[in-house]
Design brief:
membrane, 2% strand, 2 strands, mainly alpha, 10 helices, YhhN-like protein
């Protein structure tokens, strides 16, 4: 079982494992970093359990939908922790969780992945992220874009954009379109956005590690 399990681990899953381990070892335990650790725990748990479900031929629709809701909700919570307008972002989080629950039970259901919930959560994150970035620009707070926390909140931007593009079309023919040799469009975009996502998170972890020794 162990040998078979390791043989199915892909590049993205290795990125998740490495990032989670480095975060556990090097991140100081302040509130933003604890939320990041929770996000990474959700990611690694989803990957491991999904892998086990695949080997046992168990449907993972409910697992991935719940994991994705937690993932996107925790990123919104991270924005709430770092930004000043906490009442607005908190209201957005409640709205997201409410709509995610409604979509799970009376919308897309518990059998298949809830695409609309992911897209809605990603859209909310991007709106809050862009709005705050413009607010900082208007106030000429250029130091905001230089601190490590801006790197942290920028890490999932391409991830949300890329996967929303794929999930938004939800066209099987498009997802299996070959971009090069036997590489499908979905796999290509998924690999790129996950690579950027976890590289930026590892860069953030590296900088946090250096700052903690200053």
């Amino acid at each position: 079982m162990e040998t078979k399990l390791w043989s199915y681990i892909n590049f993205t899953q290795l990125l998740v494992i490495v990032t989670f381990v480095r975060a556990m070892i090097y991140l100081p335990r302040n509130r933003p970093n604890r939320i990041l650790l929770a996000i990474l725990f959700v990611c690694i748990s989803n990957e491991v359990v999904s892998l086990i479900f695949m080997l046992k031929n168990i449907n993972n629709g409910l697992l991935t939908s719940v994991s994705m809701t937690l993932h996107n909700g925790l990123w919104l919570l991270l924005l709430n922790t770092l930004f000043d307008n906490k009442k607005t972002t908190l209201a957005i989080i409640y709205m997201f969780v409410g709509l995610a629950a409604a979509n799970l039970f009376i919308g897309e259901g518990t059998v298949n992945f809830n695409y609309n919930t992911f897209i809605f959560g990603a859209l909310l994150y991007l709106i809050v992220y862009i709005r705050e970035s413009f607010r900082q620009l208007q106030s000429e707070s250029f130091s905001f874009f230089e601190v490590n926390q801006f790197l942290l909140i920028s890490a999932p931007v391409l991830f949300f954009l890329g996967l929303s593009f794929i999930f938004g079309f939800r066209d099987y023919r498009l997802s299996v379109t070959k971009v090069y040799a036997d590489i499908h469009l979905y796999a290509f975009i998924g690999t790129i956005v996950n690579l950027v996502y976890y590289v930026l998170l590892n860069l953030y972890i590296h900088r946090e590690k250096k700052l903690s020794y200053v």
